[in-house]
Design brief:
Elements lengths: L1 H143 L3 H49 L12 E3 L3 H22 L2 E4 L6 E5 L3 H17 L4 H30 L6 H9 L4 E2 L2 E2 H18 L4 H10 L14 H11 L4 H9 L9 H15 L8 H16 L4 E7 L4 E6 L6 H18 L7 E5 L15 H10 L1
Helix pairs in contact: 2-7, 3-5, 4-5, 5-6, 7-8, 7-11, 8-10, 8-11, 9-10, 10-11
Amino acid sequence: MFPLFGIVMVFVGIAGGVVASNKQTSKKLAQAKRDADDYLATKLAHIENKKQRIIKKNHRSTAEYQQTILEDLNTQRADNVTRETRIRQHDEYLRQLANRIDDDEIRFNEIKATNAQNKQHVKETLAHADQLIVDRHAVLNQRSLLDDETVKQMVLDDTKTELDRERDVEVKYMTESTETYANRIADNVIIEAIQRGPEDVPRSHIERTVNVPNAETRNRLLSHDEQHLRLIETLTGTQLMFDPDEYLLLHIVTHDPIRREIVRRALNALIVSRQINNANIETQVNNARHNVNDELRETGEDVVLSLHLGAMHPDLMKIIGRLKFRTSYGQNVLYHSIEVAQIAGVLASELGLDARMARRAGMLHDIGKAIDHEVEGTHVELGVKIAETYHENPIVVNAIAAHHGDVEPISLIATLISTSDAISGARPGARSESVEEYVSRLKNLEKIADAQKGVKESYAIQAGREIRIIVNPKELNDEEMSKMTQKVRDQIEQDLTYPGKIKVTSIRKLSAVQYVGYNPNHPKRRRYANAAN
C-alpha cells in the first residue's frame, strides 16, 4: 500500500515540476523574444543611419569624381587643339622641305651636267697636252739628234755629279766641325751621363776586425789554449789574432772576403749569445755561412732586376752578389760595377746604341774579381771565362776583355765600358781606404819620420799625401836635413804601399826671441813707475 502511494506521489511531484518548469521556460522565451525584437529594432535603426551616411558620402564622391572627369576632358580637348595646330604646322614644314629638295635636285642635276662637260673638256685638254709633249719630244729629238733615254741619262749624270759635289762639301764640313768640337761634345755627353746615371751610395768598407766588448769575452775566446779561436779558424779557413796594442781588437786575416764576412758574422753572433763553446761555434759558423750565401743570391737578383739586365743564369747572379764583399783600392766592386753599368747605359742611350747591352757589359766587366782570390789569373781573364761559361753575348765578352786594353774592342759598347770604368774609378771620392788602413798608413809615415836622427816631431797631413817633418836646428844643418829628407823618401818608397804621390817636407827653423818692457830694473821702467806714483 505504501510503496504504491510513494510512487504516485513521485509522479505527481514530477508532473508539478514539469509544469512549473514549462511556465518558467515560457516566461524566459517571451523575455528573450522581446529582447531580440528590441535588439533587432536597434540594429535596424543603426544600419539605416549608416546606410544614409554611405549614400550621402557616395553622392559627394560621385559629384567630385564627375567634376574631375569634366576638368580632364576639358584639358584633353585643349591638348588636342594644340596637337592639331602642331600637326598642321609640321605638315606645312614638310611641304616646304619637299619643295626645297625638289629645287636642290634640279640644281644638282644642272651641276652634274656641267661637271660632265668640264670633265670631258679636261680629258680633251690632257689628250691635247700629251700630244704636244710627244710633238715637242719629236722636234727636240730631231733638232738635237738625241733620243729620250740618252737625254734622261745625261740629266741623271749631271744630277748625280752635283749631289756628289754637295755631299763631299757637307762631309768635309761635318768632319772638320766634329774634329774641332769632338772633345767638347764628348765632355758634354760624359757630364750628362754622370749626372743622369749613378746615384751616390754610402761607402761600404769590408770590416777586417771585430771589437770584443769586454775582457771576460776575450778570456773566454782564449781559454783552453785558444781552442775556440783555433776551431773557428779550422771551420772557416781564416786566421784570428788579437791586436798587440789594442787589447779588445780581434783581427781577421784572410784574402777571401766571403770567409772574412762569415767569420765576422759568426763572432758577432757568439758575442751576442754569450755561449762560447764548440757546439755553439759550429752552429753560428754554419748559420753565418748560410746567411751569407742567401745574401749573395738575393743581392745578385736585386741588382739584375734594378738595372733591367734581362734574363741571367742564377749562378751568375750569385757570382755578382760576391762582389758586395770585394773591394779594389777601397772602392766596393759591386757599387763600382753598378755605377759603370748606369753610366754606360746612359752613354749608349745618348749615342743611339743598345742601352741594355751596355748596362749588362758594365755590370759584368769586373766579374772576375769575385773569384780572383780562389782561382789563378787576372780578373780580366777570369771574367772572360765566366762570361763564356754562361754563354754571354760576344759583345759583352769582348767588353770584359777590352776594358783594360788587353784586346782590341770590336764594338762601341766595349769602348763605352772602358770610358765608364775610368769615370767611376777617377771621380772624386770614388776610391778610398778603410779606416784601419788609413790610420795605419798615417802611423807608418810618422813612424818612419820620427825614427830619423834630429827629428823633433812629424805630422802626416792631407790624408797621408804629405808628411811634414820638424827638425831640431841645433842637431841638423841644412845639408844634413836634405839628406835626411831623401832618406825618408826612399824608406817610404821601399817599405810602404801608397796610392799616388806622397810629398815629404822638412822644416828647419831657428828662432831667437827677446821681450821688451818686462825688466823692472831698466832705467826707463823705473822712471815711468816714479812718474805714475
